[in-house]
Amino acid sequence: MTDWLHPSLVLLLGAAALPLLPAAARRIWLVLVPLFGLAAVFSLSPGTHGQFEFLGMRLITGRVDELSLVFAYVFGIILVIGMIFALHLRDTVQHVAALTYAAAALGAVLAGDLVTLYVFWELMVITSVWLIWRRGTDVSYASGMRYLIIHAIGGVLLLAGVVVYYQTTGSIAFDQIETGSPAFYLILVAFMINAAVPPLHAWLSDAYPEATVTGAVFMSALTTKTAVYVLMRGYPGLELLMWMGAIMTWYGVVFAVLANDIRRILAYHIISQVGYMVCAVGMGTSLALSGAAAHAFTHILYKALLFMGAGAVIYMTGKSKLTELGGLYRSMPWTFVLFMVGAVSISGFPLFSGFVSKTIIIEAAAVEYHGVIYLMLLTAGAGTFLSIGLKLAWFTFLGRDAGLRPKEAPANMLIAMALAAAACFLIGVMPGPLYSILPAAIDYNAWTLGHVLKEMQLLLFTGLAFFLLLRFVGGKNKIALDVDWIYRGGGRALAATVRDRVSYTNSALRGVFMDSLVAWMARVKRRHGRDGKLARSWPTGSMAFWVVVLLASLLIFGIRQP
Amino acid sequence: MLGRWLERLVSRGRLLSLITLGLMAALVVADIVIPPAYIRFPWDGLGGFAAVLGFVGCAFFIALAKGLGQLLLYKPEDYYGEEHEHEAPGPERSRDD
Can you tell me the distance from the alpha carbon of A190 to that of A246, in angstroms, rounded to the nearest whole number? Predict the structure, then answer.
C-alpha cells in the first residue's frame, strides 16, 4: 500500500480541502491539486496496487498497465488544462464537482474489478450532473435531471450485470467478458449508454450544451472516454461494436449539420469521434485497439480545446446560436485562432493531432479489408471538417458580422486553450511519444505521401462543396428532434395519454363497483334488515300453527313406523 | 496585433481561395501521377478518389441532413416548451465567496 498513491485519492482530498480554504488561496489550490494529481498519475508504476478484501471480495483499486495508463495520463493532463480554464470562476461547488468527477474517472480506468468500477462509475454521474445544474437556468436543471435519470438506469444495468456475472462465474475480475451470458449484455448496454452509442446517446447532445461554460470541458473529456476504455477492456473484437461505431461517425455528422447551438454541434461530434473508437474496439486487432487509445488521447485534447473556444464565445457574448453569432474574429482573434487549431485537429489535417490518430483506425480497417467501414470512416472525416472546421467556424467567427463587439476572453481561458492547442500541434508533428505509450507497439507511419495526399484532397474538396452550398448550411432557428423525443415529446405525450386513460378507466370501474355494492346492500337490507322477511318478529298464532304442523307430520310419519 | 494580421488575410480572401484552388488541382494531379503505395481496395488505384469522396460526401451529408430536417426533424425552438433565458455576457453569477 505504501509503494503507490492513488491519483483519485489526491484529487478527492484536494476537493475536500477546497471549501475550507480562504477565498484568496482557492485559486492557487485549484492549480496545485490537478498538478499533484498529474504527478501521482506519472508516478504510477505498472502492476496491481491497492488490493484489499471487502465483504469476501477482492477489490483492486489500482490496475496499472499500458491501457489504463494512456487514459490516466490524458485525464490528468486535461484536468490541469480544464482547471486553468475555470480559474476565473467563483463557484466552489462546481470546482469540487469537477475535481471529484475527474477523481472518479481516474478511479474507473484504474479499477481492476467490476465492483470498484461500479462505485467510481456512479460517482462520475452524481458529480458531473452538478456541472450542468450550476448553469442555474430552468433548462439546465431539466436537462441535468434527464442526464441523471438516464445514467441512473445505466448504473442499475451495470450493477445488475455485475451481480449476474458474480453469480455465474464467482468472480468480479474485470477482463474480457465472456460472450452470451445475461451479464454480457447487461454490462454491454450500460457501457454503450456512457459511450453514447445511438439510440442510447441522446443524453449527451441534450445535456452538454446546457452545462456550464467550464463544466462542459470536463464532461467532453471524461465520461465517453471512460466508456471507450471499459469497452476496450471488456469487449474487444465484438463485431456489433464495429458497425455501431461506424454508424455513430455518420450519426453525429448528420445531426451536427442540423444543429444551431455551437456546443450542440460539438456534442454531436463527440458521438461521431467516439464512433471511430468504438468501431476500432469492434475490429479488435492490436493496431485498431492502439488506434482507439491514441484517438481517445488526441480527441480529449482537441475536443476540450473546441469546447473551451465555444465556451469562451458564450462567456463573452452570452449567445450560443450560429444564427446570433458571426464575425467574431475581429473582437476575439486569439480565441478564433486557438479554436481553429482544435478544428483542424479534429478534422485530421496533417500537422495536427487528429491526423496521426484517426488514420490509424482507418488503416486498421483497410488492412482487415473492411471496405464499407473504411469508406464510412473516411467520409465521416469530411463531415467532421464540414461541421466544425467550416460551418461552426464560418458562422461564428467569420461570415456575416452580427454586430457583436465582445472583449477577448480572459487570460486564464486563453492560456488553457493555448496549452491544449500546443499539445494538438506537438502530437501532430511528433507522434512518436504518443505512439510509444500505446497498449501495443504499432508499426504505423501517418506521415506517408499517400496519407497526406488522400487526407488533403478529402478535406479541401469538402471545403469546396461547403462554399458552393454555403446558403444551405447555415444554422436555422429551429431544433432538430433526436431520440430524446421519446421521453421529452411523443413518448411523454403518449405516457400522459395512457395515464389519463388509466385514471379514467380506474374511476369508471370504481363507479360501477360502488354502484353494484350499493344495490347489493339494499337487497340485503330488504331481506335481512329490520323489516326483512327473515328478521321479522312473528306473531304467537303463527308459532302455534307451525307447531301443529310439526306435530301432525310427526303423527303421520310415526304411524307408518312399524 | 493578431487581429490586424487576420484582417489582412481576410481582405485578401479572393487571392487565398485562388491559391487554395491551385493547391487542390496540384493535389489531384499529384495523386493521379504518383502510383499508390498499395492497392487493397478497387478504388485505391484511382487518382483523385479522395477528392471526389470529399466533395460528394460533403454534399451528401448536407442533403441527407437537410432532407431529414425538413421532412421530419426540424421543429420550432419552443417545441419542448423550454425557453432559453438570455444570459448576460461576462462573469457568470457569483455563487459564493
Answer: 19
